[in-house]
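Progress against Task 2.4 (sequence-to-structure conversion) is shown through the following example record, which the project officer requested during the mid-term review.
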Amino acid sequence: MIQVNKKVLVKKAFFYAVGIIIIIFLLDIIFPLPNLKRFSKAVYSENGELLSAYLTKDDKWRLETNIDSVSETAIKVILFKEDKYFYYHPGVNPFAVVRAFIGNLTGEGRISGASTITMQLVRILEPHKRTLFNKILETFRAFQLELHYSKKEILNMYLSYAPYGGNIEGITSAAYIYFNNAPSRLSLAQAAELAVIPQNPNRYRPDKNPEQTLIKRNKLLRKLLKAHLFSEKDINLALQEPVSGYRFRLPDLAQHFSNYVSRLSEENQLLTTLNLKTQFIAEQLLHQHIQKLSPEGITNGAILVINNKSHQIKAYVGSADFYDDKISGQVNGINAIRSPGSTLKPFLYALLFDKGSLTPQTKIPDIPLNFGGYQPENFNMKFHGYVSAQYALANSLNIPAVLLLQKSGLKNFITLLEHLKFNFIKKSKRKLGLSTILGGCGVSLFELVTAYTVFANKGNLYIPQILLNNKNDAHTTVFSEEACYLISNILSSNERPDLEVNFFPDTKLPKIAWKTGTSQGKRDAWAIGYNSNYTIGVWLGNFDGKGAPTLTGSQKAVPLLIELFNSIDYGSSNNWFPFPKNLDERKVCAESGLLPNQYCKNFTYDYFIKNVTNNKKCDIHKEFYVSKDEKISYCTECLPKKNYIKKVYPVYPEVVSYWFKSQGLQSDNPPKHNPGCIASFNDKGPTILSPQKDFQYYINKERKEKILLQAVTDEKAHLIYWFVNQQIKTIVSSGAKFFYSPESDSLSLVCVDDLGRKSEMNVKIIFY
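Structure tokens generated for the chain above:
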């Protein structure tokens, strides 16, 4: 006998094995796998419900599938039907090959009889005629697939690409189109039905040939019973279930949201943060609300809901009816640029709280004022004199807001709005003026609601999360926690003059802070509300920009906001924001809101931010030397040696004092200064109300247009002398208006009162 050298055999086997491996890898490089087909883009809710899907470029419904999203029943049925040993073979089942080969030789089988799921996937990705050569190529490709992908990935691809008739590919597409059901909820009968279709998609399409499908499905169910994969009871129930015989439309939910999200990412499966229950509630409430308002000429609206704890979007309703062309329902109202009305005011107040120049009880004038030709008015056309910041914000007064904006600086406020991600304002900031605070700018509902979440998150701004896989806790600190608490405390007041009496007691509303807005011409109505759980924004109006006489934020948008909170946040813990550690209370003068001086007698309590809020003392209550009959006041220069007394009078800012007088509201005024006093007063001169400093006036020379000259002084003076370019033009009483027609393009104005105090201003005139 010839002796075999074992070492030589081992070496030969090793080199053969290495050679085969090298050949396989070379072939893999030379003949790469075909490119995978593109999937339909699909948008899902946070719980995995399909919201919407989009056809591929080759017009297929081809939804990517993961076995984790398919019922175990369906997986068991498909593996039994197509490839029982899928998890054990390397892409080709050698036993099945032998069995098929014998069957083909004896005429009892077909060339495809040994196909595994991997080999079927090869045919789907690279279809060829059924020949022996292509079968060999198919076998090689199957090995390639197994080399490149895991078993789970291969099964995922098969479930995603399997043909189900017409333009339907993949089990997810088929489940929704044939059963209006997610693949995770397929019944045994439905799973069996889908398992038989790929064998001959056109013949076994349930919407085209339900009888053929039923026969083939039941045959498979009986095989499943024989194999003891399911109980006899389950199989009998499945046999009794009819074939659907119908083709459903794929889900088309939250249309504006789905369209918006589909453009955010190139991924096939977009798992979003949307809560479908919250979305349905918002859609239904908006639709019902618009139905009631449509007779008043209000045809549309939008709603955005953000969870303040997760920073996720939970509802996104772009219009009252996506499919109503009469109201331009496919326009997305959440991203539309509209006038915000008064909704930007809280950001300005928070800015000044943090600067330390304002507290809730600080008094601000609410009187008719001219800001360089801009004369804002309150919504109710009334003025309130001298009001607290808290009252001004809670009642959305316009004059105090414009005054505060002028005080803080428009540039500073615009910078703040940029930090709050108001992108359209950032683009148009060079065109903006003081009217910005009253809605003279453009914002979107998305921007506005996002910005309001800063108050619910201790001053931190988070970009709302839309895709579940894109969680980002990065944030920008915009305000202090203390300023946010003050704003929330003010906006949570339910005592507002623009609401009906007992509006809130009739609701089961959790405590919220809220702000309304109405644009000029009543084209836009806003209501933004928040608590620790949610920030909800409502916009109502018409997409064509047409106004409606009854359209206001308080009367039309607030009721919808309340319904939303009652429905979405019903039964919540109702925990309010915790009191910040750097916020405290102190006693202040009730008439100025400042720390009391020695003459103040009426007090109230006010919040202040430690080490931030200024400690300015009240400058309203002042002591005067007056005659015993209180008809004449004296200064130290003209004070007599006797026959005088000391008395405290309130001395308001000149503009406020003048308005009080015009309304007959101030009775206890300091008496006139001693007419015999010849002392020269060097203190503050008159306050010029018009024209405005650093303002250019455009004058039509042919029409001889005029500008308004108006100034007020304190109680010590009575007359005002106006000089224009060193020439006296008029002598008027304090607060009186004088209209002057400019003769040159540069005016040097000097305003002198009868005590010799003066104020100066230069004005630029542009003639056209």
